[in-house]
UniProtKB/TrEMBL annotation:
The protein, known as: DinB family protein
Source organism: Ammonicoccus fulvus
InterPro entries per UniProt: DinB/YfiT-like, MST-like
Cross-referenced Pfam families: MST
Length: 162
């Protein structure tokens, strides 16, 4: 794993992958500051919880890379059919289990990414043909956004202890 600063003079692929890795790590580490009970807390009207963000990150890695570029169906990959479902927590979900699932999803995504050129494409049912370059940029943005959400939620939850 290369951090984004180390990739500051790297090529386009190296920079994209470094930022992707950084936001993957930041999101996972931020949510893991909580215990399971805290991580299930809903502080906003949506399905967004710290644990739900981590579960959604598993979905993001899997749907874009394993499914869209890797050719597996959502059912084969074991992910839900809708984005909203990807935030839904099951009674048996734990931070440790989701952190492990996230690490596995990242590893599978990285295997797919490593075989592709930035100009290779996938088909999205609404947006049409998308390059790996576009998808990587989209995932960097999405994971950065969710890492920010996690940071705010975790800060609010931990502040209650003081």
């Amino acid at each position: 794993m290369v951090n984004a600063l180390d990739a500051a003079t790297g090529d386009e692929r190296g920079v994209l992958l470094a930022f992707l890795d950084e936001h993957r790590r930041v999101l996972r580490e931020k949510v893991l500051e909580l215990d399971d009970e805290q991580a299930r807390r809903r502080l906003v009207p949506s399905l967004t919880t710290p644990m739900g963000l981590l579960k959604h990150a598993v979905f993001v890695e899997t749907v874009w890379f394993v499914c869209r570029f890797g050719g597996r169906t959502r059912a084969e990959a074991g992910i839900p059919e809708t984005v909203d479902e990807s935030f839904s927590l099951e009674p048996g979900d734990t931070l440790a289990g989701l952190a492990h699932a996230h690490e596995r999803a990242v590893a599978m995504a990285d295997q797919v990414i490593s075989r592709l050129d930035l100009d290779e494409t996938c088909i999205h049912p609404v947006m049409g043909q998308l390059s790996l370059r576009w998808v990587l940029t989209h995932c960097v943005r999405e994971l950065a956004q969710h890492a920010g959400h996690a940071d705010i939620l975790v800060e609010q939850i931990l502040a209650e202890r003081k």
